[in-house]
Design a protein that fits this description.
Elements: H1 15-24, H2 28-38, H3 41-48, H4 55-65, E1 84-86, E2 89-91, E3 95-97, H5 110-121, E4 125-127, H6 135-141, E5 146-150, H7 156-168, E6 173-177, H8 187-191, H9 219-223, H10 233-242, E7 247-252, H11 255-263, E8 268-271, H12 285-296, E9 302-305, H13 311-320, E10 324-327, H14 329-361
Parallel strand pairs: 3-10, 4-5, 5-6, 6-7, 7-8, 8-9, 9-10
Antiparallel strand pairs: 1-2
Helix pairs in contact: 1-14, 2-14, 5-6, 5-14, 11-12, 13-14
Bound molecules: flavin mononucleotide.
The site of flavin mononucleotide has 24 residues, from helix 3.
């Protein structure tokens, strides 16, 4: 089976039309609808799905909307900025592209297009261990700040190698994913016959059986060797001790785990339930965030991802105490809709929404988004 089965099947429209088409997408939901028509059924099922009954997946999104924003009036918001500093670098807004696997399933240019889109939008990108493009190639494609997401498999040497390569390529940080001792049970992957199409690979982990294609079995069988159920706090400590780059522990929901991660050397926490793809039943990340923020108590930055689809969600996350948010699936929808320009449009939509939400809430800059917005004054 060729690569063409997995990438957009339609003839791309002319550049002018394509730019117009992207501008007509007004929300990330609009983008998702179009992406669905551009993706193979298998790629769509892999991207969109969650674990089990997809309860956590659904609540990740709906729970943000339940939080009221007590807007302030009569604040001078004539000069506004969504800009901030992330990982010591200027960022156009407190948003990163979350690590997601196999971008070539969405677009033939894969992670290079995503990185170019992030550069255009002025935001950092986190590259998945399961990327379909070599990390050095991605680093050469764009100048956005890059972070490497790392899974530790049975063979810890692979993780060490990935960390060394990220350092050599000038990355600004690492995210060690800690919520994946085994893969979540994702029915959509099984029913859609998930496999890695011929011509695609988890190239950064090559040397194992990364090129192996398996028909109709789900990711657990195809990529089971990339993770390990024996990973513990010792491994987090080990990874933190290996590198000068800040290591963020990604996939934490509990306050006690957050404290323990910081004690183990983590220099940041990503509150995440893997986009509802691991333990179905775990809380929506917005419900986990306040406890983690309190536990960490300003010692390290706290990021959050899961179900963030609107600028107002970003405002809510920052008001609760997050330093920044990550978005996963929307970036894939942007990539499927228009390659790098689609990714840039995805972030443009979020930036415009965040800017509008800040103005209406009485916040001229990111620093003025504070907890008082979440309660009656
Ligand atoms: C298709 C897909 C692949 C993913 N691959 C990875 C991965 O390789 N490593 C990782 O740590 N998280 C991975 N995630 C989880 C994301 O980093 C992020 O936590 C999640 O997508 C955020 O939720 P959202 O998609 O609702 O924004 C993946 C998520 C999706 C949807």
């Amino acid at each position: 089976m060729g690569l063409s089965e997995a990438v957009p099947q339609r003839k791309p429209p002319s550049t002018h039309d394509a730019a117009d088409d992207l501008r007509r997408l007004l929300s990330l939901d609009d983008m998702e609808s179009v992406a669905r028509t551009r993706l193979s059924e298998m790629a769509h099922a892999y991207f969109v799905g969650g674990a089990g009954d997809e309860r956590t997946l659904g609540q990740n999104r709906s729970a943000w909307a339940e939080i009221d924003i007590w807007h302030r009036v009569l604040v001078d918001v004539s000069k506004r900025s969504t800009a901030c500093t992330l990982f010591g670098r200027p960022s156009s807004m407190p948003i990163l592209a979350a690590p997601t696997a196999l971008h070539k399933l969405a677009h033939i240019e894969g992670e290079c297009a995503t990185a170019r889109g992030c550069e255009a939008a002025g935001v950092p990108m986190v590259i998945s261990s399961l990327a379909s493009t070599a990390i050095e190639e991605i680093a050469a494609a764009a100048r956005c700040p890059l972070l490497m997401q790392v899974y530790l498999g049975q063979d810890r040497a692979l993780g060490r190698d990935l960390i060394a390569r990220a350092e050599a390529a000038g990355f600004v940080g690492l995210q060690l994913t800690v919520d994946t001792p085994v893969w979540g049970l994702r029915h959509r992957e099984i029913t859609s016959g998930f496999h890695i199409p011929a011509g695609m690979d988890v190239v950064n982990l090559r040397g194992q059986d990364g090129g192996k294609s398996a028909q109709g079995v789900g990711i657990a069988q195809v990529l089971g060797w990339t993770i390990s159920p024996s990973v513990t706090w010792k491994d987090l400590e080990w990874a933190c001790g290996l590198t000068k780059l800040p290591v963020y522990a990604k996939g934490i929901c509990r306050a006690d785990d957050a404290r323990r991660a910081v004690d183990a050397g983590a220099r940041g926490i990503v509150v995440s339930n893997h986009g509802g793809r691991q333990l179905d039943g775990t809380p929506a990340t917005v419900r986990a965030l306040p406890g983690v923020v309190r536990a960490v108590d300003g010692r390290v930055p706290v990021l959050v991802d899961g179900g963030i689809r609107r600028g107002v969600d970003v405002l809510r996350a920052i008001a609760i105490g997050a330093t920044a948010v990550q978005v996963g699936r929307p970036v894939l929808w942007g990539l499927a809709c228009g390659g790098s320009a689609g990714v840039a449009r995805c972030f443009e939509i979020l930036r415009e929404e965040l800017d509008r939400a800040m103005a209406l809430a009485g916040c001229a800059d990111v620093a003025s988004i504070q907890a008082d917005l979440l309660q009656q004054g």
